[in-house]
Each structure stands twice: as C-alpha cells, then as structure tokens.
Amino acid sequence: MVSTGQSSSLREAMAEGAPSTTGQPEAAAAAGKPVAGHEKGKPADAKFVEFIDVEKLYGNFHAVRRLNLSIGRGEFLTFLGPSGSGKTTTLNMLAGFERPSQGVITLDGKSVDRLPPYERNIGMVFQNYALFPHMSVADNVAFPLSVRKVPKAEIGPRVIRALEMVKLERFKDRRPTQLSGGQQQRVALARALVFQPTLVLMDEPLGALDKKLREHMQIELKQIHEMLGVTVVYVTHDQSEALTMSDRVAIFESGDIAQIGTPDALYNEPATAFVAGFIGENNALDGIVERVDGNQCLVALPTGLTTTAMAVGGIRPGAAVQLAIRPERIGGSDEPADNRFKATVDGRIYHGDHQRLLARLPSGQVLTVKVSPDAAMAAGETIDLGWRTVDCRAFAAGAAPNANTANTGSVS
Amino acid sequence: MSSIAIPGIKARTGATDRSDSLRPLALAAPLLLLLAFSFGAPIVLLLSRAVYEPTIANTLPQTIAALRADSGAGVPGEPVFRAFAADLKAAQAGGTIYEFAKTLNTRLPGARSQVLRLARLAGQDPAATKEAIIKAAPLLGEDQGWAAIRSGTNRFTSFFLLSAFDLRWTDQGTIGAVPSAQAVFTRVFGRTFLIATLVTLATLALAFPLAYVMTNVRPVIAGIVLVLVLLPFWTSILVRTAAWTVILQKYGLLNDLLLWLGVTSDRIELMYSRTGLIIAMTHIQLPFTLLPIYSVMRAVQPSQLRAAQSLGGRPFTVFRRVYLPQVMPGVLAGCLLTFILCLGYYITPVLIGGASDQLISNFIANYVNVELNWEMAAALSFVLLASTLGLYVTMTRYLGLDLFKMG
C-alpha cells in the first residue's frame, strides 16, 4: 500500500514539474520509522480531546445529541456520516466557530468553552481551501506565524520548510488562484501546520478534488500525519477515504455517533444496520427472528428459508430484523458455510479483478456476490451459495437507513 | 478581440482570421457610430472651443496687417487705428459686430459698449483720428486693451484655459494671477472638490457598515434592505431633490422633528446651506457607493474569515489583513464613482445649495445658457474632464483598481 502510494506520489510530483529529488528523504522517513512524538496509548493522552455530554440545538433542531467522545494524542480520527448528520457541527464546536448548547469540550485537559477560535491553537483545513486570494502562497503560509508575532527572520525559513513538506516551495511567489485545486489544498495544509498546532481539523478537505488526485492526497495526508505525529480530526462523507486514512472512525447518524472504532472493526462488526450499510458494500435481507441462542439466532426469510446469524443488540424471537452480509463473505459450494442456499443468476457484472453476480434466492431476495473473475456463470444458471454464521449479522429492523443509497454509495 | 470569437465557428465556416476579428467589431459598429456622433464628436467640438477662437482674427484682417507693420509694443500708431476703424465699419456692415464686441468683452471687460460706440463712429466718420477713436473707446488708449486685441488675433488661444485657473498672460508676456476681484474659478473648483470629498466620505461611512450587515443577514432581509436603498435610485433626481426641499426647509419635516425631539431650540437653516446640500447629495449618491462595496463583500468567502481566525488572527487582525484588502477594490470603486458623479452635480446645488454653494457645473451651465460664452464653458469643462480622468488613472495605476474588472 505504502509503496504504491509513494510511487504514485512521485509520479504526481514529476507531472507537476517538481524536481524528483525533493521530498524523497522525508517520504522515506515517513514510511520507514515512526517519528518521535507519535506515541499512542499513553494513558494521559488518550483523552487529549474530550467531548462530555455535548449538545447543539438550532431552534428545535437537534444538530448534535449528547455526544461523548475522547480523542487520543496523535490519533487520526475521522467523523464519517451523511450530510446533516452533525459531523461538521461537531467539528465547528471543537474549532470554536460554534458554541455547544450544553456540555463541555476539553483540549489537553482544559475546557475550551470560553476560548475564541484564535486562542485555541488548532489548525484547520477547509473544503474550499479558504486561501487568502490577495496574498502570495508564501504570505498565506506566513499568516499564522506573523499574527503570532514570530520574528521575521524565523518566519521565512519556517514557511519554506512547510512548503517543502507539501512539495510546493517553487510556487511560493504565486497567487493561490494560479495553482490547481490539489496544489491549493496543499498550501492550505502547509498553512494549517506551519505554526505547529497539536490538533488539526480537516473539513472535507479533498471533497473538491477529482478521484485520482483525492486518492493521491489521502496518502500524502497520511504520511504527513505520521511524520509530524499531530492529532487529526477529519470530516468526510466518503467511506473509502475514512477507511484508508483513519486510526479510528466515528460514524455519525442524525446527531449521534452510531459507532466508533477502527476501520476493520466497523467493517467486520458493524453495531447497527446503518453502519453496516454505510461502511462498505452490504447485502440487506429482511427476516423474522425465530429463536435466540446466546449471541446467535435463527432468522426466517420469506417462503420458509432460514439462516443462522449473529444477534447484534437485544433482539427477541418474533422481532423483525435486518440481516447484513458482505458480498465477499458469500461463498460457493466448495467453501465452508453454515447456511447453504440454491440461487438463480440474474446478472453478472465484470470488474476486472473480480466479478459480481446478482443471485436471486428462492425467497425472491437478490444478493450481490463477489466471485473470482474466472468463474464462468451465465444468467439463468442455478448455483449453490452459502455463508458462515459469523459473517451474517442480524440487527433490529426499524433503525435501518435507506440501505440502497448506502449500497450505491459504496460501490464507487 | 479574438477571445470573443467562438473557436468552433471558425473551423466550421473556414473563415479567415481577419474576418474573425472584424466580426465583433462589425456587431458593435452601430453603437460605436452612435457614440462617435452623439458623444465623441460634440465633446471634441465643444472642448476645441476652449483653445480655438477665430472671431477676433476674422473680424480684424486690416488691423492684423497694420499691426504687423507697426513694430512697437503697447498702443500702436495712427495706421493701426485707422485699419481698426475700417475693420469695425466692415463688421458693422456685415452684421458680425455684436459677436465681435461680445468676444472681445470676455478678454477685455467693458470693451463691448466702447466697441459698439466706435463702430457707429466709424460708420459716420471714415477719417476718424487716433485721438477721436481713443475718445470714443478709452480702452484703446491703454496697453492692456491692445494686449487683448493682439492676443485675440491669434486664432489659437490659451486665454480661456488660463482663466479657468484664474491665470492670465500679463502685459510683460508672463503668466500671472488675475486680479483677485476676478479670481473665481480656483475657489469654485476647490469647493467642488471639497463637497465631493465630504459627500464621498459620508456615503462611505453609511455604506460600508450597511453592506457588511447585508452580507451577514438572511438573503430575504438583505433583499429588502437592497430594495429600500435602490428605491430612491429609481426615481428621478429632480423628484428626489424636490423631496429634500420639503424635508429640509425651515418649516419642513426635519426641523419639526429636531424641535420635537428637543435637539435644537430654534429652527435651523438647512435649505440653501452647505449642510443641506451635503445631506441631499449623500442620499442620492448612497447606492453608487454601496453597490460596489456590497458586491465585493458578498464575494469574500466566510470560510476565509474562519480560516484566518483558526490560524490565530484576532477579529481586528482578520478584518485588517484578510477582509479589508479583499473589499478594498469595491470601496475604491464605489468612492471613485460617487466622487466623480459629485464633481458634476448640477440640479441639487441649484435647488438646495445656497449662492455660495454653487459647483463648477453651475458655472458651466451659466456660461452656456446665460452668458453665451462657450469658450469659457469649454475651458471649465475641459478642466473638469481632465481632473476626472486624472483621478481615474491615478486610482487604476497606483491603487491597482480596475473598474472594468468590477463585477
């Protein structure tokens, strides 16, 4: 992963005309050894930032409800959620642009309740870059230093160092409008980091960039994070971005955190149907619980089919549930499975490294199944498929979001 | 020019580069012709009168020849007087004597009646002597009289332009100030610039905070405020000025209000005063200053101000280093617009200003309509136009403002 990222980062740098040698030692350092200061797991640092019972109301609208959240020093935490889920409001409260209606936010053990944004020493990167158009790139980056009354002799070298970090030192005399979107965002990044804040907030910083550049910038951001050991709180609605970059991800759903955890925990053990649908691709099946047996249960699908599943949350026999199964966890007849079904192939989508089958169960429900690109299956054919109990999760229905939307979102 | 042409069309029609660049010109031609005939040509013709004045030279061909033969300065000898009398007689017969008398009078105050008297004398007595002529027209016995005639025989003259600055050619051939009793234009120009400056500052003081508020309220409210500001803009300037006379007069609304509030104990004279003039002009000019400022303020992204704050900028620093530089082009454009328009105010000073508040436009109008001294009107117009252009160039060159780039 890292090596791919690096080669593409170099390619990009060369395409933009940067000398191919610059940045290489740093990139190597970033990839090679963890830099001092990036120490996770120190007990006192686990609560570097803390939200305690934080609420935000706009009139009668609950933008954020009873939020409790701790962010560790040096952590890369992502707020992920659909628009209107409260993630940006939460970020703005941390930055100081919004005041919580209730609750306390602490930064390094001290309440920031009364601190205006300019005294919080938090770097921030915005989606639309928010560069000052009337200043040169160097002046933009120098701004946080000059307002802090850093001596002039010190500002110049620090600006250059920050611009070298984002490989833009050659453009220091340009105006922001003369740079491409990706370059502008790197200037904004340099500006947010040059005064060595301990916390950097990023509000959908890559949202305005095209897909390729976005993926490249994700790797660059991650490298800079590891190099500097700075704490990053990152807001996005792009789940792949969240999974790629974050130490932990907090999934926001209508003002609440639905689940917080490492990317693989969220992917493999989603706590709600919403999370299962929002993160990654997911097959959602409706059913009725027949029997609960410890952390497992038996669920009846329409037309008499049954499957065993992991019972998530307190579900009782007779309750309507939604089952979530990842497409790559559905296997063929030669793979181990606790539940086996016959299905009809409705269609086949070729993806190069794999192909997806649309398989119709006898119950009429259609599943997406990820299979090897070599498997030759024609539409109309009957196939065997199955899954293990641990790969199928049953959530209480009702709290389910629009699973289709989440699905289409994740396919890209 | 070529940037206006659509690239695709060229490929399809196979038109040459030349016709491509001519097409936009051809499309704009009707407007350009109209502008040239109705705007450019009259301005050039009028302004040329400030420096080209052939009446005296046309009327005095014999005098000019005689003066050329007469070598001395000051009052010339007998032949010149005789030639002068003959020229006047011819002018009397040709019907151009009144125009000549009027023209000479602008350069030689009091010459009009003497010239007309002399013309009558020349008609009755063709052999009038130098003494008889000087008796009829005493100005001709003075050096300054002949200095005026000599300078008038030159069709091209700097007389009117110098007069616009209260300057003249002295008898010694140097440029000097006119007698203080005749000096009027520098004071009028000064007053015009002073009032324009005061009105510009007043509109800025009102418009800047208002524009800021308008960019920060809900769009509906901003729209209502905008309509309220623009509403007077859509009524005729004459109507607005008349409305101000109702408000400002001694027994008008404003005085009633001030008395009722107890701010003043006596009715104050706002009509025909500079205060009233500035109030009315400020009101009329407010939209001109406001709109450019509002448009640039709306273009400043709120996230920039947030970014500046998060980077450690205190509110005043953010205002001074991030906000103000970005709205400055609009502020300058609005102020320049108002200032230039104020320089040309005519109706409002006439109706609201007092006798001592008349601006340069009032003098120009007076020369055109009453005194029929087009040369002086042209000279004053020229100075006004030149100072306006100079101001614009200064603003664009040294302050980096480009009105053509203002959205």
Provide tags for this entry.
heterodimer; A: 412 residues; Rossmann fold; OB fold (Dihydrolipoamide Acetyltransferase, E2P); 3 domains; 6-stranded mixed β-sheet; 19 strands; disordered C terminus; B: 407 residues; mainly alpha; MetI-like fold; two-stranded antiparallel ribbon; 20 helices; elongated
Brief overview:
Chain A has about 400 residues and is of the alpha+beta class.
Assess the beta-strand content of chain B as a share of residues: under 5%
Q: What is the H/E string of chain B?
A: HHHHHHHHHHEEHHHHHHHHHH
The rounded Rg of chain B comes to: 29 Å
Q: Helix count of chain B?
A: 20
Largest interface: A-B, 27 and 19 residues
Query: What is the mean pLDDT of chain B?
Result: 85
What is the beta-strand fraction of chain A?
25-35%
What does the model show?
- The complex is a heterodimer of chains A (412) and B (407).
- Chain A is 28% helix and 30% strand.
- Chain A has 412 residues and is of the alpha+beta class.
- Chain A has three domains: 1-32; 33-268, P-loop containing nucleotide triphosphate hydrolases (Rossmann fold, 3-Layer(aba) Sandwich); 273-402, Nucleic acid-binding proteins (OB fold (Dihydrolipoamide Acetyltransferase, E2P)).
- In chain A, a hairpin with a 2-residue loop joins strand 4 and strand 5 (110-111).
- The radius of gyration of chain A is 24 Å and the shape is elongated.
- The model of chain A is unreliable at 1-43 and 399-412 (pLDDT under 50).
- Among the domains of chain B are: 55-157, no CATH class; 185-359, MetI-like (MetI-like fold).
- In chain B, strands 1-2 form a two-stranded antiparallel ribbon.
- In chain B, strand 1 and strand 2 form a beta hairpin.
- The chains are: A alpha+beta (412), B mainly alpha (407).
- The A-B interface holds A 95-97, 116-118, 120-124, 126, 128, 130-134, 143-144, 147-148, 188, 191-192, 195, 201 and B 301, 303-304, 306-315, 317-318, 321-322, 325-326.
